[in-house]
Write a structure and sequence with these properties.
single chain; about 400 residues; alpha/beta; Rossmann fold; Tyrosyl-Transfer RNA Synthetase; Structural Genomics Hypothetical 15.5 Kd Protein In mrcA-pckA Intergenic Region, Chain A; 19 helices; 13 strands; about 45% helix; about 15% strand; globular
Amino acid sequence: MNKDKKINKLVTSRYIERVYPSKEKLKQFLKSSKKLTIYIGIDPTGPHLHLGHSTNFFLLKKFQELGHKIIFLIGDFTACIGDPTGKLDARKALSHEQTLSNCKGYKKQAGKILDFYSKKNRVEIKFNNKWLSNFKLEDIIRLTAKVTVGQMIKREMFRKRMKEKKEIYLNEFLYPLLQGYDSVAMKIDIEIGGNDQTFNMMMGRKLVKVYLNEEKLVITTKLLINPKTQKKLMSKSEGDFIALDEKINQMYGKVMAFPDEVIWTVFSLCTEISDEQLKKIESDLKSKKVNPRDVKAKLAKEIVAIYYSKQSAQKTEQEFNRVFKEKKLPSKIKEVKINKKEINILDLLVRIKLASSKSEAKRLIEQNAVRINGIIKQDWKEIVKIKKGMIIKVGKRKFIKIFNS
């Protein structure tokens, strides 16, 4: 495929929602001889990247393959302020130590898609604490002078807060300015991010023009949204997501737990299957030629293969079918030693780490989610007699085998 065709394919990529100022301008940038500097910024508010991030990574991969410079920016400074995006209440502040701890696994997780080790054109990792921590008060004052309060309160989430008579803190006004300054510090040509980051990214476009007298493009990507409920499929703040370093069986199982209406969306945004394959999947689902469960199984295998391997995906599918289709026990079950003859069921669940607390254990029992040797347990006061080889199951996918001395 020649360069022009590659550029046209990239510009029309299904991962892209919108380009500011236009897709034509993006084509001009790509057709120039300049090696573009393109970045994505991620605040390390938690230790996991998730499937929602993969959409951006697949798009960045295409730019990397065209030879452009890719920067993976970790917002270790901005995470300490807290991005107000999508929040009707202020975010809880993090310490710098927490942010550095959270991002330790990011390179390995994103590295399943992006190439951080290429000898020709590796992805570069940067931290915005390097320049933002050196800001003096006079620098901040000069920065704030670039934007009016009127421009800030046009932001939808701030308008919602004002309508609901909720407070807006000054540091939340600073966040988009500081994120925007990242583009100035790194002399960015293009920034890529989810469409919920449009305001912050456009701030960077404005500041690049003011400080560098250059044009920065903004590419917004599509979010993983359930088309039926319009709710996000991946939410770190709500703890509802599939991590890129999820355990293989959990990853497969969580994909299989998706509602049928999101199958096509996840195929579209979280895999690299061809557009032709994607059209066929859409057609088959709409015409009801296929069982959605079978298509979902293909999706689960495709995703597991990206983060593990095709061989691992095949084995995981077989194991999943063994447990959920054939109603057999997993071929391998983690064993935990209990040096007691009997124990309260709540203490047991916490000890073997199938519950994080007694209150969670109690809730699981009340939901009929706990089975011992296939029998549902409904009494959270029960004293369990420990027997060698007993199997404890919580939910659909968590098993523990007990042995004692």
